[in-house]
């Protein structure tokens, strides 16, 4: 077991001195974007499938709006996913800033007490 005075990387993670959610949220963001990309490819495939299944040009009148609306929805999902991930990053950066302010205030109190 690590000594209580030692401040190693693992110890900081175990006692929540250092938050790991900031770096992890980047991985979560890219994983979510991959899922959204699969959804976009599914929309394209579905609209092409509708067009070729019917085999007539009248099916293009159905396939084209499905493609356009589907891609707009996927684009909106991408923006919402980005906004949600940015929200979490901002929350944790606020926590980091408050921690830095607390350390600066404690250091100032130590200097004033001398």
Ordered list of secondary-structure elements with their pairings:
Blueprint: H1 9-14, H2 21-54, H3 60-113
Q: How is this structure best described in words?
A:
The protein contains three helices and no strands. With 114 residues, it is mainly alpha-helical. Helix 2 runs antiparallel to helix 3. The radius of gyration is 25 Å and the shape is rod-shaped.
Number of domains: 1
The N- and C-terminal alpha carbons lie at a distance of 35 Å
The ordered H/E elements are HHH
Q: Strand tally, please?
A: 0
Low-pLDDT stretches are none
> Number of helical segments?
3
**Helix content range:** over 70%
The best one-word shape is rod-shaped
Q: Mind summarizing the main beta sheet? A: none
Computed CA radius of gyration, to the nearest angstrom: 25 Å
Label the structural class.
mainly alpha
Quaternary structure: single chain
Structure at a glance:
With 114 residues, the protein is mainly α. It has helices spanning 9-14, 21-54, 60-113. The chain is rod-shaped, with a radius of gyration of 25 Å.
Any key phrases for this structure?
single chain; 114 residues; mainly alpha; 3 helices; 82% helix
């Amino acid at each position: 077991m690590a000594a209580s005075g030692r401040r190693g990387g693992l110890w900081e993670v175990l006692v929540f001195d250092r938050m790991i959610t900031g770096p992890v949220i980047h991985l979560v963001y890219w994983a979510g974007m991959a899922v959204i990309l699969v959804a976009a490819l599914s929309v394209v495939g579905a609209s092409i499938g509708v067009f070729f299944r019917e085999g007539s040009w009248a099916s293009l009148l159905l396939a084209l709006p499905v493609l356009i609306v589907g891609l707009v929805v996927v684009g909106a999902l991408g923006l919402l996913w980005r906004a949600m991930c940015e929200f979490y990053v901002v929350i944790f950066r606020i926590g980091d800033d408050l921690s830095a302010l607390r350390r600066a205030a404690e250091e100032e109190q130590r200097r004033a007490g001398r």
